[in-house]
Amino acid sequence: MARAKKRSKQKGPLRKWFMILFKTGLVFALLGAIALVVAILVVRSSLPGFEDLKSSPNGQMIRVLDVNGKELFSMGPSYGEWLDYEDIPQVMKDAMVAVEDRRYESHLGVDPIGIARSVHVRIQRGHWAQGGSTITQQLARNIFLNNSRTFARKGREMILALAMERKFSKEQMLELYLNKVYYGGGAYGIDAASRRFFAHSARNLDLAESAIIAGLVKAPSRYSPTADAKAAIGRAGVVLEVMQDAEAITAEQAANAKPAAVKLAPEPRQNSVRYFTDWALPQLDLLIDESVQPIEVWTTLDLDMQRAATSAIQSHVPGGSQGALVAVDRDGAVRAMVGGTDYVTSNYNRATQAVRQPGSAWKVFVYMAALEAGYRPNDTVTDEPITIGNWTPRNSGNRYAGDIDVRTAFAFSKNTVAAAIGNDIGTSPIANMARRFGISTPINTNPSMVLGTSDVRLLDMTRAFASISSKGIAVTPFGITKVVTMKGDLLYQNKFDGSRVLVDPWVTAGITDLMQTAVNTGTGRAAQIGRPVAGKTGTTSSNKDGWFLGFSSGLTTGVWMGRDDARPVSGLQGGRAPASAFAAFMKTAVAKRKVEKFDTELVLPEWQLEPDEEELFGEPEEGVFVDENGMPLETGGGIEYDMEGGEAANGPQLDQDWIDSVLGRDADPAPPSPDPRPDQEPIAPNRSEPTEDVPETANEG
To answer: Where is 65: in which H helix or E strand?
Structure first.
């Protein structure tokens, strides 16, 4: 009995202290629970609404496509189209829940079983190898927190998860999760991932594709199909096993799903395509106002043509030099653009940014101005030494052919003939012609300008030749056909304006006749492709620049080659490497197009057919008056003529205001009208060797 009393006395204080500690623990637990509830309620009240969370991606995703819908590349973080819960395929939802949070439907935001399992693995392996976060916790971390591995961050994550479970439904949180989580390759959300990896909307995901995407969340950089396709497929197999174990799919469905057979989207092109996109995409700011929704930009680029253009430049450019190529369709759509031999080493776009002397390629403007002033392809001109002021141009090798026709002079690029024509008609009409056809760089009107001494851009020159190909209708190069949202809403659609006529059709017919001869028998023979081609070579002094521009079957292509430092390139002439690159590209580019013959018949206006010169100055009601460039004048109530100078005292030119506004310049002052040329008897042309005459420039630098 005494011993029992003694043991009772000993246990009394222990029980007493235990009860004190127990009650204290209960109090602290109760206080902690109250604090947790208060924290959850406070956090819940501060959470944004569901619609606010839906519209909170940072940055606009821009998906750029070629003319056939092939993806060129994507810009910015890719968020894709937001899919409502009902629009997400069930297999995608089942795959994500099975692999990331099997007890998602039953827990309150935090999964004690998952946490216990994570701690057990941590003790076994000595490091954190398995996460215990629920889908709700991951969503809270992605939206509100960062990925730092600290207990403080984990605590905030749990409170946020519990608060979110109190504010949002399970369907809403799964919708947010699937549309916001990062899946690798720059893709946020399942729609962006589906488009990035499979090239179609997430609305159409099948089981195998869903397993691949669900497997990415654990380690996007490791399992991304663009980084390691084999690892992504292996991870998808694990997801299918987990789905089967969770009874989300049957064994038969798991066996029939073939992740290895899934067709992955091809990797976006990265090299020369970027020359084009760097030029085209900045135009978006002028075309649309949308800056939040993800958009698709449909461009004019044809990837097959782009590959052919890149190959043509890289294969033919002289060693140590650069090359550029632009191909423009009949409506102005740019089908290919190469701004250099390699975008990775140099992203400077020589097709749109570089300004270089065009050499004899400029003579298209000289001869168009001459045709408009009354010259005809069969007229006789004299190839002989000439001095204009203190300038004495010369032909290549100092060779002169004597009396030849205009067609031959152009085909063999005779410098002295071009100089004589410029002296005859004046250089201002030539500058005016170049302006009309889209040359936007400064143009000098010195006598030597007829040989291409004014700097130009390849894109501008190609635009001019495209307008000639279109029979004098203004062609404006463009790179974007339409812009749509991911939902299919049209934001912009390009429309071709074919109403602007730059010259009469007989002028372009005449210059096309001359250019076709240049390719068939003259300096551009290397540009022949087995179908009608019209074009012109250009070579500057000391072989610093080589050009070839021409068109066939509705496609106009310009090629430039040279060094960025403008040093001479041995053997570089427009009729060699540039013309060969043109031919190599065009053979592929127009292979599937219909062969088109050129309309080179000159249907001259009546004022040119009249034998009596005085017929040009009849009464206003008896005929059409023209300005110094041969352009019709709107007479209105009649115009006063200065009969001595042959100049109209007033009256606007056709479309001149539009031309000035497009080019952002003041109208060129009207030059004095040249005296009529004396008639010449035609003499059989003397066909000389097809060597291009290189222009002499006042300053070779």
So the answer is: strand 62-65
CA-to-CA distance for 316 and 309, rounded, in angstroms?
11
Nearest CA among 314, 558, 341, 317 for reference residue 457: 558
pTM above 0.70, yes or no: no
Which single residue is written with the structure tokens 């070629």?
Answer: 66
Q: Are 152 and 132 in contact (CB under 8 A)?
A: no
- Comparing C-alpha atoms, which of 394, 417, 422, 395 is closest to residue 404? 417
Cα–Cα distance between 79 and 54 in angstroms, integer? 11
* Amino acid sitting at position 600: T
Cα 29 from Cα 27, distance rounded (Å)? 5
**CB under 8 Å to 671, separation ≥6 — which residues?**
426, 427, 428, 429, 628
Q: What is the largest CA-CA distance in the chain?
A: 154
pLDDT in tens, 403-423: 999 999 999 999 999 999 999
Q: Is the pLDDT confidence value at 123 over 70? A: no
CA angle, residues 35, 40, 46, in degrees to nearest 5: 125
Q: Is the dihedral of CA 393, 398, 399, 401 positive or negative?
A: positive
In the chain, the amino acid numbered 619 is E
Strands 490-493 and 534-539, by their bridges, are unpaired
Confidence (pLDDT) at 333? 97
Could you tell me which residues come within 8 angstroms of residue 201 by beta carbon, excluding any fewer than 6 positions away? 81, 191, 194, 195
Q: Please write the tens of the pLDDT for every residue from 241-282.
A: 999 999 999 999 999 999 998 988 876 655 789 999 999 998
**Residue whose pair of structure tokens reads 């005085």 in the numeric block:** 614
CA distances to 239, 263, 376 from 209, in Å: 11, 9, 67
Task: Report CA-CA distances (Å) from 387 to 67, 419, 447, 448, 451.
Answer: 52, 9, 10, 11, 14
CA–CA separation, 65 and 241 (whole Å): 37
pLDDT in tens, 668-695: 443 333 343 334 333 333 333 445 555 5
Q: Is 213 exposed, middle or buried (0-12, 13-18, 19+ CB in 10 A)?
A: buried
Helix (H) / strand (E) element for 515: namely helix 505-520
Please tell me the predicted confidence (pLDDT) of residue 81.
84
Cross-strand pairs, 381: 404
Q: Which of 279, 277, 273 is nearest to 297 (CA)?
A: 277
Work out the mean pLDDT of the chain and round it to a whole number: 80
pLDDT at 340 over 90: yes
Above 60 in pLDDT, residue 606? Answer: no
Higher pLDDT pick, 299 / 658: 299
Question: What are the pLDDT digits (tens) for 529-580?
Answer: 999 999 999 999 889 999 999 999 999 999 999 999 999 999 899 999 999 9
